[in-house]
Amino acid sequence: MIDLEKSEIHKSGKRKGEERKAIGIKDEISHAKYKDPNDKKKYKNPDDIWLSRSAFDEFKKCQRCFYLIRVKGFIPPGIPQFTLNGTTDTLLKKEFDLCREQQKSHKFLIDNKLEYIVPYKNKGIAKNVYGDPIIPTTSKTKTPYEIMEAWRNNAHGVQARFKNTNFVLRGSVDDIWLNTKDNSLILVDYKSQANKDSVSQETYWNAEYKAGYQRQLDFYVYLLKQQNLKEKISDDVYLLIVNAKGLEDSFDNKLLFESTLIHTKAKTDYLENDIEEMINIFKSKEVPVSNKMCKNCAYARQRSVIDAL
Q1: Residue 234 CB: number of other CB atoms within 10 A?
Q2: What is the tens place of the pLDDT at every residue in 134-147?
Q3: Chain centroid to CA 226
């Protein structure tokens, strides 16, 4: 897709100043902030490098793109915001939060014979990797986040230092459920889609791109296992899929979703080796080769031929 640099707009709705020019790379100040998505003033070690779950996904897809974006500060073309997906996520969180407060199972779980599972509730104060309380930047009262609030916040998420390095891993989760039978925590991720066919456990993982979903779940479970919680972290994880089949006769200003729970097992044994490789590439002075299947790299090579003329 073609992505244009957004112009700065004044609150009056008029264009503010000169039209912005896309330069394709971040300046030194913004690049430092890009590598560390948190405000460095809040943290004790400005030399720490924060890598998110999405950065790990970039590394797994194409090491060259990962390096150019995360190390060199290249600005990749953006993609449209999936605002409908964000809305369904928000509504699902609100719905499960009602059950969380009352510590009761959700009707959806009961219908799936999982009545012993309730949304996880933890009123403890959320702390970052330095042991400091995480305080919302927009909070006037400076009240620290509760643990689940921070874990689900994109600016903070679940944080863990990787071994004894200056690399900190993080990722924000959609939800965590508690298995009251064995006091284990279950990772849950919400997914929205529109497909006329019903979602089924037997066929859901057939699509090649869903390997990324599995990797996402693996990464989050790995982070949770680093938190030293009193509850054990289950390798049983779920996707809560809401699917708009679109089979109705008319729109009538509403979409009807069919909810399905997809189960899988988190696999974390491979992650430490992959994370170490990611860090070594990040620290390298050489730009790695691209994935031969990477369309971004293929486009860049073809474009360079024309631009060189």
Answers
A1: 21
A2: 988 776 778 999 99
A3: 17
